[in-house]
């Protein structure tokens, strides 16, 4: 298959793999209910219903936990953008459509349960949260804006992106749960992280099959996604400030991105051991290898040095997060 390959061609060839992976996912997925993960007895009315509006003193979360919870929730809130992108890349036909619907329904539970938890426990300012949700969802998110619809490239780029993004989100949710200081929040975020892991496996396995079908295209899309990767929360209000705080304190940082997300998936796909590439694929692989080398030898060590200095200054000042 060459560059004239269309999206429809690739979807048709990989449909049996998609059907197999949908069935595997449905057998492995655990059905759960958001209301079972929320401490409803902690709830009370706000002023509009005769109660008391939010005050910072009501929250038991640290500033770090607040930042991470807001970033994770607003990321989940942007589901309409992600649904649109996945539906455009996969279409709503056959097994592809079954997956699009099921994945969207499962992802929606994450936003439901996180918001219910934060509002009931008064973990964050609900007015600020709603304002940020409106801004973030209005802006939307599209990691592959420049790729024309109907092409095989839009399928490959979308699939490569979500393979990494689902794993990155799993790491972020898991680590957020560990620093909340609340076993209820930790249980909730572990449940969400388990969902994200199953979603990652679906996409990862499907991209593995894409590599077998169109190795050059798969390598080109992979290199483009990894070297330009952004988390889906990149456009939300205060993302830079909150992202820096999360990175500094080990919720999601460049080292974790490299060692816990990028490298495991690249190993799974045997990216640097493949022998089925032409010059096109080899060039993309060389670009990817150079990027990974730069991460390992320059960017990650520089980040860790800067982080360690910042944490040392905090300890000297007795700063509490």
From TrEMBL:
This protein's UniProt keywords: Fatty acid biosynthesis, Fatty acid metabolism, Iron, Lipid biosynthesis, Lipid metabolism, Metal-binding, Oxidoreductase
Domain of life: Bacteria
CDD domains: Acyl_ACP_Desat
Listed GO MF terms: metal ion binding; stearoyl-[ACP] desaturase activity
Binding site for Fe cation 1: 76, 107, 110, 196
Binding-site residues, Fe cation 2: 107, 166, 196, 199
SUPFAM superfamilies, per the entry: Ferritin-like
Cofactor annotation comment: Binds 2 iron ions per subunit.
GO cellular component terms attached to this protein's record: cytosol
BP terms from Gene Ontology: fatty acid biosynthetic process
Cofactor(s) required, per the database record: Fe(2+); Fe cation
Pfam (any one): FA_desaturase_2
InterPro entries from the UniProt entry: Fatty_acid_desaturase-2, Ferritin-like_SF, RNR-like
SUBUNIT field: Homodimer.
Family: Belongs to the fatty acid desaturase type 2 family.
The name this protein goes by in its record: Acyl-ACP desaturase
Organism for this UniProt entry: Segniliparus rugosus (strain ATCC BAA-974 / DSM 45345 / CCUG 50838 / CIP 108380 / JCM 13579 / CDC 945)
Lineage: Bacteria, Bacillati, Actinomycetota, Actinomycetes, Mycobacteriales
